[in-house]
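Feature request, filed as a ticket because there's no other form

It would be nice if the structure record came with a short human-readable summary line next to the tokens. Right now we just get the raw output. Example of a typical job, pasted below so the devs can see what we mean:
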Amino acid sequence: MWLNRFLGVAAGFLGIVIGGCNGAAQVHPAHQRLPAPAQTISIYQLAGRLKLRVEHNGRTYALLRSRRNTVTIFPDPGGSIYVNGVRLRHSGPIRAVQTVLFVPASSARPIEMALRPEPPPHSAQPPTPPARQPVVVLDPGHGGRDPGAIAASGMFEKDVVLPVALMARRYLEAFGVRVVMTRRGDRFVGLEERAELANKVGADLFVSIHADSCPRAAISGHTLYVARAPLSASLDAARDIDRALSRAGVRSRGIRRGDYRVLVRTTCPAVLVEIGYLSNRFEARRLAGNSHRQNVAYAIARGVADFLGR
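Raw output as currently delivered:
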């Protein structure tokens, strides 16, 4: 009995070590990376590229629309793509991964070529409207019954990222950005709900804020994530935030790719920021302090403002 129990624990530990510390997926199952095939994009990413809206998403079909166009997508077996009732040729899988359809990234261009041009704006010249205020959705990770990573001190990730996000909101508002929060207090919010909020408000950028953890306690620094097949604007935003955090004195672990739910379900540019490692005692102590939290919050806001040209 004791031998079986020992072998089970040892196998679990080896699985963690071999898996490495490439981000929150190994440590925080709530992030829920979607194991999509390589060279594919979600229908939400496809809609963002083609300036369409997602009217329906499900395991059996997806429906994307604009004023003059309808795109219908059916998954394998027999996966097919129809643009305004005409079936398009495509190569590669169309698969339902949990509740999200993924299509070959190469299909975006043929679909775009088959779309009808949208009607031009009315010829009359209305008064010039005031410049649109950019909208950013800030998403403090976890919350409520989901604590996220836990530091050796007992500090929860959810209690670190919320104040950082709230501080970043104030800085962004000072830069003239409208900020929408996925949560303002300690409550649980579903991953789909977070992404759908960004789609609903027509966000210019979605920023999910997390703190990382790793069995190797010496690992430290911040990491930026974008989807595996990101919008080019997502990469631009990640680079701007990465530079700002580096200037603030937080070691960069680079920009990585992962199909986390909150990244592939958004139609706008989207990034996930891991602001540091709670498993690193020094970094956890810094993140427990208000001064460092403000430093990180300002850096995130500055990077977002740089991306928006504010």
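Something like this underneath would help us a lot:
The chain has two domains: 24-34+132-308, 40-111.
The two ends are 63 Å apart (CA to CA).
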